[in-house]
Design goal:
The complex is a heterodimer of chains A (458) and B (382). With 458 residues, chain A is of the alpha+beta class. Chain A has ten helices and ten strands. In chain B, strands 4, 5, 7, 8 and 9 form a five-stranded antiparallel beta sheet that branches. In chain B, strands 2-1-3-6 form a four-stranded mixed beta sheet, with no helix packed on it. The chains are: A alpha+beta (458), B alpha+beta (382).
């Protein structure tokens, strides 16, 4: 592993990325903590809608308070938040904790998902790799000044963020794929019970070159340069230990109109509903792998199954479909996000009152994804979708779509159950899943002496 | 021998001085260390160990360089190059226990060393590195010059045999002779810039030429490779092989009077493999023979030769040197796994993803470890 003659980590800024005075920072809230300033019920509803939503995902009832544990500045001061984001002034997201810090927050404006294969030679080097990733993530998420090198080498930092690295809300989420548990590192006996290569579904068109990987790293932040800087930094410190296999960049659109929910490239609001991330009990039952889970190796406690699906949207075809057909495929109004049976974006669709699908067709995406029955409640996922846009195809159509990610306790019980219900939905003609993978997002890093994967590698 | 980088700096200084005179001065920042013809950091102090950024202000009438040195041996902790008159530039370092003094190197004056500040205790900081001077690099350059001369003698005979094979219509033999000669050339990598136009003629790519691979201006090893592995006949390729043979002889003839730029010696320690990663391990420079792994291996040999020559200078200056050898050894081992018993090599396009990623990882990590050498061996004034 690298043996730079200079300290690996920079000096953390004293007050990295301090927000503008007067800007509320709800990022300090822990899951389940009381929401500050709940006097205005309208704002409360707004937050719930804007920040815990989902159209094409698994839609859940909006019971249980607002779902904002997030680390973005409150959109009530939306203008200030946007200005902060553009200025790279989002506050740091605390890196240490029982869980990885990038899992629960709402999608940030920019993200990148990069899959790597481990090239480390043996368990010792693999441990070095995870320790190095941890050290870099610890520095990058806190921000600070990169170390001076004297005359002994090139600069220790790319300089992309200027002389002082701003945190800009960066989160670094690291997962491991099933292939890491082959015979190379002696980890076969520690394979998580539900971790397999990604299952191909009948409507998929998977490109092996854009699937799977020994490790995945998701980098999310307020700005694209922050994400790129983090990727370059992590890569330069880990060149011998892992090699990138595929990568996709994503973005979350601003809500349009303001105060609603960000839209995907189909023009529909995406993520209107989701499990309530401020509800610790719900997170414990849907997202986190609990200690002593039957069949799971002990090291997985505090982790979460992390599914990545790269889904092309055939937007030219979609744009030639009339609005009624579009809305029937989704089950919501395109303009407002309302379920077809309701006059409110956050209303729970009442499928029981519509057993034959006269209002919301039986094949509508929101109906198949989440039938809202007691039997399907435990298949809900924590959905985190981003848009992607990366050029054109051979006939000049846009290569754009969705970087779908989700977190869950059990990939079989949750993602695969949902995806199985969606097989053959009318929407499949307009989308084409081509890549991604199943990973296990590692348990969190407790403190400065801990590192990602310690329990796995110990 | 000329010192290109320094000369360029001097020119740049003249320009910036003019601009500054027009703009006027601004308030001096805190933590200012002032240097001038009359003194080099007079009255400065250090509170103690830790990261520190000085603002170096040049109050002299001309540009210059300011180093923070250990006055005991002249080793350099940090430096600011090209500091124009009237300008201020930051100098950052991690201050450890030791002795510190500023040294000023102005264009028209003798070097000047200011007062010494001692930081007590046993704290490690940015290490001071003994500067390497142009004088220090003359012997390595001579040694490298001789290495290239020997290689060129070998190359001339191999290129002659290659041309004879093509001329005689023995294209199977020519393919084998081509690989042998090309690898000999690739082992000389460090001298690319010194070869000047010869390198374009001997080892050029068709990329920048109108017509690409069909351009009549495309000559050299890759042109011949393209022909030999794309069914072109002896008649068509004889002139290509003869031109290559001729150009290699011309290079050997000119070599004794060719100087090696002293700056290049350190730079090439990573640039050879930067090129290998960009053009060989990507498969870009595979014009049919599938031998880019062999080329990379030859480039590793060239890099190791340079390192051997520089070793006496690097051993006491670069703590990462063992890691350099670790990764170059791993890279060489991984590459050689793809050499078949018959002397042919697997093409990168035929490697499994895992083999390819292992090679790319080893090359990339080797480059990361090699990178500091260029900074350390940059010829400095003392």
């Amino acid at each position: 592993m690298p043996t730079d003659p200079v300290p690996e980590e920079g000096v953390p800024a004293e007050e990295p990325g301090t927000a503008e005075p007067g800007t509320a920072d709800p990022g300090a809230l822990e899951p389940g903590a009381a929401e500050p300033g709940t006097a205005d019920p309208r704002r409360r509803a707004f937050l719930r809608g804007a920040l815990s939503a989902g159209v094409t995902g698994v839609v859940v009832g909006a019971a249980g308070g607002y779902a904002y544990r997030a680390t973005r500045p409150a959109p009530a001061s939306g203008q200030a938040a946007q200005e902060n984001a553009e200025a790279g002034l989002l506050p740091p997201v605390p890196f240490h904790g029982k869980y990885q810090a990038g899992i629960l927050p709402q999608p940030q404006r920019q993200t990148a998902v990069i899959s790597f294969n481990a090239t480390a030679d043996g368990r010792g080097e693999l441990t070095d790799l995870f320790q190095t990733i941890t050290a870099r993530a610890r520095f990058l998420t806190a921000g600070g000044t990169p170390p001076p090198v004297g005359i002994g080498g090139p600069p220790s930092d790319s300089g992309v963020l200027g002389p002082t690295v701003v945190p800009d809300g960066l989160t670094v989420t690291v997962g491991v794929g099933s292939t890491l548990f082959d015979d190379r590192y002696g980890l076969a006996s520690r394979l998580p019970a539900r971790l397999t290569p990604m299952l191909p579904f009948p409507n998929d068109d998977l490109d092996p070159a854009q699937c799977g990987g020994d490790l995945v790293i998701q980098l999310s932040a307020g700005n694209a340069d922050t994400v790129m800087h983090a990727l370059r930094d992590i890569a330069r410190h880990t060149r011998g230990g892992m090699q990138a296999s595929w990568r996709i960049d994503g973005f979350a659109s601003p809500p349009r109109p303001s105060g609603t929910v960000p839209r995907n490239m189909l023009g529909f609001m995406d993520g209107i509903s989701n499990p309530d991330t401020s509800d610790a009990a719900q997170m414990d039952s849907l997202v986190w792998i609990a200690p002593n889970t039957a069949g799971e190796p002990a090291w997985t406690a505090g982790g979460s199954y992390f599914v990545v699906r790269l889904i092309r949207m055939l937007v030219e075809f979609w744009d030639r479909v009339d609005i009624t057909e579009q809305e029937n495929m989704i089950g919501r109004r395109r303009a407002t996000g309302y379920p077809l049976d309701s006059d409110s974006i956050y209303a729970v669709p009442n499928f029981a009152l519509d057993p034959t699908g006269d209002v919301i067709p039986l094949t509508a995406h929101i109906r198949l994804a989440n039938p809202r029955t007691p039997q399907t409640a435990d298949s809900r996922i924590l959905r985190r979708a981003y848009n992607y846009d990366r050029g054109i195809d051979q006939v000049g159509d846009l290569d754009t779509g969705l970087v779908f990610t989700c977190f869950q306790q059990d990939v079989k019980r949750q993602f695969e159950a949902v995806q199985t219900r969606l097989i053959g939905e009318p929407l499949v003609d307009y989308i084409s899943p081509f890549g991604g993978g199943y990973f296990l997002a590692l348990p969190g890093v407790l403190d400065r002496t801990d590192y990602l994967g310690r329990a796995l590698l110990a | 021998m000329p010192n290109v980088r320094r000369a360029a700096l001097t020119a740049a200084l003249a320009v910036s001085a003019g601009v500054l005179a027009a703009c006027g001065g601004s308030a001096p920042p805190a933590d200012l260390v002032s240097v001038s013809n009359g003194g080099c950091g007079v009255g400065w102090h250090l509170a103690g160990p830790g990261w520190h950024t000085f603002q170096i202000y040049n109050g002299a009438a001309e540009g210059g360089e300011v180093d923070l040195i250990d006055p005991a041996n002249g080793a350099i902790y940090a430096e600011v190059n090209g500091l124009g008159p009237g300008t201020t530039s930051p100098m950052s370092l991690d201050v450890g226990s030791g002795s510190y003094a500023f040294r000023c190197l102005f264009d028209d004056y003798d070097p000047m060393t200011g007062p010494t500040v001692v930081v007590a205790g046993h704290t490690r900081g940015t290490p001071a590195i003994l500067p390497i001077t142009s004088n220090d690099l003359i012997a390595p350059a001579s040694e490298y010059h001789a290495y290239v001369a020997t290689g060129l003698n070998t190359l001339v005979s191999q290129a002659g045999a290659l041309a004879a094979d093509v001329r005689g219509g023995n294209l199977a033999g020519a393919k084998s002779a081509w690989l042998t000669a090309h690898l000999t050339y690739e082992r000389l990598g460090a001298a690319y810039d010194s070869f000047g136009n010869f390198d374009d003629e001997i080892d050029g790519r068709p990329d920048g030429l109108v017509g690409g691979v069909n351009s009549p201006q495309w000559t050299g090893f890759y042109r011949l490779e393209y022909g030999l592995w794309h069914g072109q006949g002896a008649h068509e390729l004889t002139s290509v092989a003869d031109t290559l043979d001729h150009d290699i002889r011309a290079l050997r003839t000119s070599w004794p009077s060719t100087e090696i730029n002293l700056l290049d010696i350190g730079l090439r320690t990573h640039e050879i493999l930067e090129n290998a990663l960009e053009f060989q391990l990507t498969g870009h420079d595979d014009y049919g023979s599938g031998s880019t792994l062999a080329t990379t291996e030859a480039n590793v040999q060239g890099t190791l030769e340079l390192l051997a020559i520089l070793h006496p200078l690097l051993a006491e200056r670069y703590s990462g040197l063992p890691a350099v050898y670790t990764w170059l050894d791993r890279l060489q081992m991984l590459l050689n796994q793809n050499k078949r018993p018959n002397g042919q090599w697997l093409a990168v396009s035929g490697l499994s993803q895992s083999s390819r990623q292992e090679i790319d990882a080893a090359c990339s990590q080797a480059l990361q470890e090699l990178a500091p050498i260029a900074a350390i061996t940059e010829p400095r004034l003392t």
